[in-house]
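input
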Amino acid sequence: MKRFAQELLPFIFLILVFSQAHAQVESDEWRFQYKPLAGAYELYSGELSEPRAAGSSGASLAIRIDKEAARQIFAQMGRDVPNLCPSEPGERMRQKNDLTCYRSRSGKHSCYIGFDLGSGKSKAGNIC
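output
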């Protein structure tokens, strides 16, 4: 019996090593986790082209996302679209429905989206 246990010892050791390595790989995998967000917002009524102070009815929310979050969003949005009103030469734009992201020639990223707070539907968060 003692000899049998001695023969199993290397196998037990390998199982422990591999199970520990597997646990380490699993712990390094991606997990859903909220991250800090750089940006700004504004509450308003009316349209972005003629905004007014937010009132008790018809309020909207415009959100600007900056820095690393904007860079990551921009990278996930696919191909550039024609930028009809660039704020500087060489500025790139990507747009999916009401989400619009920009990358300046210097590498600065920003994204915009808005929401109608009465309906909860998304809307543009910036205009030219």
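quick obs: Helices lie at 2-27, 67-76.
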